[in-house]
Amino acid sequence: MRGNGIRSWRLEREKYSLTSQLVRSSRSISANITEGWAKIEYANLFRQHLIHALGSNADRAIYFTGFQHLSSIFQHPAFHF
Asked: For residue 52, which of 32, 40, 46, 58 is within the disulfide window of CB 3.0 to 4.6 Å?
């Protein structure tokens, strides 16, 4: 029983961590696009911010996949005690 509690605590902590990172990477996408748009007259800077936004979007996709996987683990009967 104690082992399940520790695993559950670790999974809860990981869930919080993934959620936090998912929120931050999602915010970064719009922030980079906005900042790039403010510098649109400088093509290289504008392009650089769009590239950063694409990178943040890729991060978001990875964290979302991890979050979905972690959520499916929480649905397992072993965690319903």
From this structure: 32
